[in-house]
Specification:
The protein is mainly α. The chain contains five helices and two strands. The chain starts with a strand and ends with a helix.
């Protein structure tokens, strides 16, 4: 997970995510492209967008020097943003990410 990636969303976080685990499992059972399209569509509908934080380059350099480099592609970063916004639980985000990468 990249610490230099931010999410623009209101502070309001729902107590229960808008999607059930069963719904997420159904999405995760699809192809990687379908998962990517779902993530992009969901983020667009909820006004969630990705932007680089000012310290992005510094965080990448520290991560590289500590042998802890983890590069996320734009879809993975969007899944992280959906989790931070309270749209997905950590379980749901992890499930989608694992199936997206397969």
């Amino acid at each position: 997970m990249s610490a230099a990636t931010g999410v623009m969303v209101s502070k309001r976080s729902p107590k229960t995510p808008p999607f059930s685990d069963q719904q997420i499992r159904q999405i995760a059972s699809g192809r990687s492209r379908a998962i990517a399209e779902w993530a992009q569509s969901t983020a667009r509908q909820r006004g969630i967008s990705m932007r680089r934080m000012p310290n992005h380059q510094f965080v990448k350099a520290v991560s590289r020097l500590s042998d802890g480099v983890v590069e996320l592609d734009p879809v993975e970063e969007l899944l992280v943003a959906l989790g931070r916004a309270g749209i997905l639980t950590s379980y749901q985000r992890g499930l989608l990410q694992v199936h997206y990468l397969r």
